[in-house]
Amino acid sequence: MSDVDAREAVARSHREEWARLVASLTRRFGDLDIAEEAVAEAFATALERWPAHGIPPNPGGWLTTTANRKAIDRIRRESKLDGKVKEAQRVFDDDPPEPLGAIDDDRLRLLFTCCHPALAMEARVALTLRMVGGLTVPEIARAFLVQETAMGQRVTRAKAKIKAAHVPYRVPAAEDLPARVSGVLAVLFLVFNEGYLSTGADTDPVRHDLTGEAIRLGRLLRALLPQDGEVAGLLALMLLTEARGAARVSASGELVTLGEQDRGTWDAALVAEGHRLVRERLVAGVAPGRYQLLAAINAVHTSARDVRDTDWSQVVALYDQLVRLDPSPIVALNRAVAVAELDGPEVALAAVDRLEDRLAGYHAYHATRADLLRRTGRSQASRAAYGRAIELAGNTAEVAYLSRRRDQLG
């Protein structure tokens, strides 16, 4: 067994097992800090032992047992009351745990725990990315454009607040769900986005473990709240985006933009499911929310057999509705991309330039501006904008794409 094989096995297990392990230990020990530390120690032990002793037949089971023992060891080291140690021993009981909510899923309970309204929204997102998504603190810091130390403190404070406030580890009661779900959706959307286009320079450019987990949790939320339009909208948005996953990165590791993708490789089943959800919300006759509008925009894109067949007037009209709900600079930037197709790059460039003060540190702003400058014949300014986008981008596939586009300008 080579070190490389063992490390790849540990990395694969981390992607597949992290959220389940943290959720399982949180349920059993009632402490996020103990759960996270024990799981992290279990993976560290795997890195030490698997190269020497081989990958176990059931890596997930090995990690579960190891993490449970690490948690019990910590409780004993801290000289907790005997009762607490006895409670910890439940990890070895054969009896299944009692269901704790409408859907008996540890990771869904963990999601609601991390998204409790006692926490500020930025803390909820950071904690969920760490506990449910398994992202490292540096990865989360890059996603938030903040320093690693500040992000580490944010995650630590969030865990401490959950413990001090005795936040229950459960899916809220039915009457409390609607008030809690908007925060959960916001976090799920960010988890999905981190998988869709990873911010880490040393990670896979597309992380299907994160997008897959976000979709799985989205389906569970849909089962909990079948009449909630925004739950359906977010699920549709994720499905329609994930459907294009196989076409997003070339064999050479370069990002492939929507207009250049081989649409024959899109997942037809996911596209059909996403379209059904979008149509379902249209028939409901209720004013759409943010996620429903984003899903509708993606439905227009995935309905076109070729990028030239895209109904750009409909896309712009949907963005006009979205801007009224969410007047953020990123929405305005995305709207400008559609305007360029409808009214030309000069009109779009004027709209993009108005966003400079708010998006100067955002790589996609400079990438969009670079493309529009290229299309208007301003090669030198376009090269400079591509250069700034490359400096700010962390995704390796995106950097490769932007570098090629810049180099084509000569």
TrEMBL record:
UniProt KW keywords = Sigma factor, Transcription, Transcription regulation
Q: Name one GO biological process term.
A: DNA-templated transcription initiation
Q: Give start and end of each DUF6596 domain.
A: 180-280
GO MF: DNA binding; sigma factor activity
| Record carries keyword Transcription regulation | yes
**What Pfam families does the entry give?**
DUF6596 (PF20239), Sigma70_r2 (PF04542), Sigma70_r4_2 (PF08281)
Residues of the RNA polymerase sigma-70 region domain: 19-79
Domain RNA polymerase sigma factor 70 region 4 type per the UniProt entry, residue ranges:
111-162
Q: Which SUPFAM superfamilies match?
A: Sigma2 domain of RNA polymerase sigma factors (SSF88946), Sigma3 and sigma4 domains of RNA polymerase sigma factors (SSF88659), TPR-like (SSF48452)
The family line of this record is: Belongs to the sigma-70 factor family. ECF subfamily.
- What is this protein's record name? RNA polymerase sigma-70 factor (ECF subfamily)
Please tell me the species this chain comes from.
Pedococcus badiiscoriae
